[in-house]
Design brief:
- By secondary structure, the chain is of the alpha+beta class.
- It has helices at 121-129, 179-193, 197-205, 216-221, 244-249, and strands at residues 5-6, 14-16, 25-30, 33-37, 51-55, 61-66, 78-80, 88-89, 95-96, 99-103, 110-114, 137-144, 150-156, 165-170, 206-211.
- The strands form 3 sheets. A 6-stranded antiparallel sheet has the order 1-2-5-11-7-8, with no helix packed on it. A 5-stranded mixed sheet has the order 3-4-6-10-9, with no helix packed on it.
- A hairpin with a 7-residue loop joins β7 and β8 (88-89).
- α2 crosses α3 (197-205).
- The protein is globular and about 65 Å long.
């Protein structure tokens, strides 16, 4: 579900979540106050993820009030002024209880705000394209999701022979837990491009099987993913798997 709303005074402020990873329900925009809450969709319990964009608020200050449950982390929201490519923390000094204030730059027509720093397929593709040691890793298709998206996996390390060890690393079984993507980047960058003795031993002896997005549909649709009805990806390894990605990993 996507949501759009405008200021009651008829100004051009608009808020929506119609982009990869977007999630919000806007209740009202009244002057400088925006009342809103995260969209739980098919999640069976309360959870924290939200991500939306604000357009037409250049040079203004708005206060965002979350009305249904705690939804702001210890560093305050994350903010992006380049359409979600890069993010920084807005800061805990902007937060009061379950609200936060944001002063919008005068020269930025679109600002995105989120519980934390989203990590989408676009981030992954850009990261992989920047890796230098191409011989150390390869990319493959694991499966296709219910909505027709490809789920990728990477094999990294020990490209020339049989590894002494194989290690499986998976991210985003609960699709909203986005910071795992940045941690994964650090691990892969160290393994593939670092010149030290330890990563060299890893490259020679260990092969990593890496799935960056287990719940690929949820990541791109902006779902919570936690406690998804009737079962989330993190609980889908018992009995017959409901999802193609968990079944393929097994």
């Amino acid at each position: 579900m996507k949501n759009t709303n405008r200021n009651n005074a008829g100004t051009s402020v608009a808020i929506d979540c119609d982009f990869p990873g977007g999630n919000i329900i806007v209740e009202s925009i009244d002057g400088r106050e925006v009342r809103l809450h995260q969209d739980l969709r098919d999640t069976t319990r309360d959870w924290f993820y939200w991500c939306f964009r604000v357009r037409g608020a250049q040079g203004r200050s708005l206060r965002f009030v979350f009305t249904e449950s705690p939804a702001i982390g210890v560093r305050g929201p994350a903010i992006s002024c380049d359409r979600g490519k890069t993010w920084s923390w807005l800061g805990k000094n902007t937060v009061q209880d379950n609200t936060f204030a944001c002063a919008f730059p005068p020269d930025v027509p679109e600002v995105r705000l989120s519980f934390a720093m989203p990590y989408q397929e676009s981030h992954w593709r850009e990261f992989v394209s920047g890796l230098d040691n191409l011989a150390v890793f390869s990319l493959h298709k694991l499966c296709t999701t219910r909505k027709g998206r490809d789920v990728q996996y990477m094999l990294a390390g020990c490209p020339a022979g049989q590894p002494l060890h194989r290690v499986a690393i998976t991210c985003r079984h609960h699709c909203c837990e986005m910071m795992a993507g940045y941690a994964l980047e650090g691990l892969i960058k160290w393994l593939v491009d670092d010149g030290g003795a330890e990563p060299q031993w890893m490259r020679d002896n260990v092969q990593l099987f890496i799935v960056p997005f287990v719940d690929k549909d949820g990541v791109e649709d902006g779902d919570q993913g936690k406690a998804r009805h009737p079962r989330d990806h993190g609980r889908d390894y018992e009995g017959e798997s409901l999802f193609a990605s968990t079944g393929a990993i097994r």
